[in-house]
Design a protein that fits this description.
The chain is of the alpha/beta class. Helix content is 25%, strand content 30%. It is built from 4 helices and 7 strands; from the N terminus they run H-E-E-E-H-E-H-E-H-E-E. The chain has a 7-stranded mixed β-sheet, sandwiched between helices. Strand 4, helix 3 and strand 5 form a beta-alpha-beta unit. The longest helix is centred in the N-terminal third of the chain and has 13 residues. 34% of the residues are buried. The model has no long low-confidence stretch (mean pLDDT 94).
C-alpha cells in the first residue's frame, strides 16, 4: 500500500474534526486555501483561490473582519494560518467573541517539534502543542475549555490540533 496523498493541511485532520463539526450551522474556515473543512463553511483567506468567500488584503482586514458576527458562530476552524500573523492571540480573542456559547474553536498548526519553522520565512511564530495549549489556557482562563490538544505526526504530518469550547 502506498503512502497517503494529502490535498491540503486540512485534508490531514478532516476525519478527526468532522464529528465535532457535523450538524453545526455557521462554520468559519480561516486560511482555507482551496480546501474548506466542509463545503458549506465560509472560507476566509488572504489569497483568492477557489472556495475562498472572503479575501483579506492585509492582516488589519483579518483582525477587523466578522465583528458583526459576535455571538453567532458555531465553529471557527483554522489550519496553518495563525503562525503567519503578527498578533495571533489578539485574533483568537476576536474569534472567541464570534462564537456562540458552546461554540468550538479548532486550531491546526505546525508543531515546532515536528516541523522546522525556521526554514519557512512566512512563519512569524512557532509553537509546540504543549506551549500553545499553555498559552491558550493563560489567554482564555475561564472563557474557553480545551477539549483536546493532540499531536498529528506521521508521514507528511507535523502538526497539532487544539480544540476548545466557548463557555
Amino acid at each position: 500500500m502506498g503512502k497517503p496523498i494529502y490535498h491540503s493541511e486540512t485534508d490531514k485532520i478532516r476525519q478527526y474534526v468532522m464529528p465535532y463539526i457535523a450538524n453545526r450551522k455557521l462554520v468559519l474556515d480561516f486560511g482555507c486555501g482551496g480546501d474548506k473543512i466542509v463545503p458549506e463553511a465560509v472560507g476566509i483567506d488572504m489569497r483568492a483561490l477557489p472556495g475562498v468567500d472572503h479575501v483579506m488584503g492585509s492582516d488589519d482586514e483579518v483582525y477587523k473582519w466578522g465583528e458583526d458576527l459576535y455571538g453567532k458562530v458555531d465553529v471557527i476552524y483554522s489550519s496553518h494560518f495563525l503562525e503567519h500573523l503578527m498578533f495571533p492571540w489578539e485574533l483568537m480573542g476576536k474569534w472567541r467573541q464570534m462564537l456562540k456559547p458552546d461554540g468550538l474553536m479548532i486550531l491546526y498548526l505546525p508543531d515546532d517539534n515536528l516541523y522546522d519553522n525556521k526554514n519557512n520565512p512566512e512563519h512569524l511564530h512557532a509553537w509546540t502543542a504543549n506551549d500553545f495549549a499553555d498559552g491558550f489556557r493563560t489567554s482564555f482562563k475561564s472563557q474557553m475549555q480545551i477539549l483536546s490538544c493532540i499531536e498529528d505526526n506521521g508521514y507528511d504530518r507535523y502538526s497539532f490540533c487544539l480544540m476548545a469550547r466557548n463557555l
